Amino acid sequence: MSVVVLGSANLDLVYEVDRIPAPGETVLSRGFASFPGGKGNNQAIATARAGADTRFIVALGRDDAGDRLAEEARRAGITLLDRRVDAPTGTAVITVDPRGENAIVVDSGANAALLDLTDTELAAIRAADVLVLQLETPLDTVAAAVRAAREAATTVVLNAAPSAAVPDAMLAEVDILVVNEHEAAELAGGPADGATLLTALTAHGCAAIVTLGPEGALVGSPGTTPVLVPAFTVEAVDTTGAGDAFVGAFAASLDRTADQRSLVEATEFATAAAALSVQRRGAVPSMPAFEEVRDFRATR
Ligand code: RIB
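Above: the input record for the complex with alpha-D-ribofuranose. Below: its predicted structure, written as tokens.
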């Protein structure tokens, strides 16, 4: 499977805290570390580690953080289609509490300059089996990438994260939408139970996966009965990037038919990848390899 990921890369500045600070509150950190992150970068690394031939279209600054992120991505076996721009590499400040829950602030930096796709970038999208997108990249660029994929019958997987409004016209061109409950509610016009959210999303004509945290993930496509794929019960130390582990592993294990059976199988693999990732600290360091996911699934 060949996958192109188009998206963000950030240097994550991660603080372990006893509790995530409330407005006006200062808390002392128990420990600090920086890790490669960013939703696009995490998903590209998850995809490559899951065994897919992966290209990553990304904008980085001409700085040490950009060098570090590029080096780490190449070490994971990714072919980078990177632009170096006159802006600092994106950063994210992340607080993680003892339950592994987090709060994240992203400064887009160079990611905001990923505009006007080049002929090389468009050709890579058209040549791929699957295109993976998120919403830390300008929406016009996401739309242009979706159009290029549609021209070539490249399967489009949109992870509509972080939560944002997406034009209906774009949702109609997406093949598979992957969202958590909050993101699903944003797109569906308000909170509802998982099945109702799924029905609202698939009404756009796409397949949809709604992740439901410890309950698992609900899979559906137009005209099919939704299937709940249960989550694994594990002890979380850091949930940062768990959604990205899911999306990357899902894209890497998709079957070309992308029918309901293959969506469920890819979701089962992705659910195991996410369960492994929450047991490790950091975003990129927590993305599991194919063999780890395979062995972990065998324990169920
Ligand atoms: O999904 C997790 C990611 O969100 C972090 O790596 C951070 O960089 C933000 O983009």
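Notes for the reader.
The mean pLDDT is 97.
Residues 8, 10, 12, 37-39, 42, 92, 104, 106, 136, 240-241, 243-244, 283 surround alpha-D-ribofuranose (CB under 6 Å).
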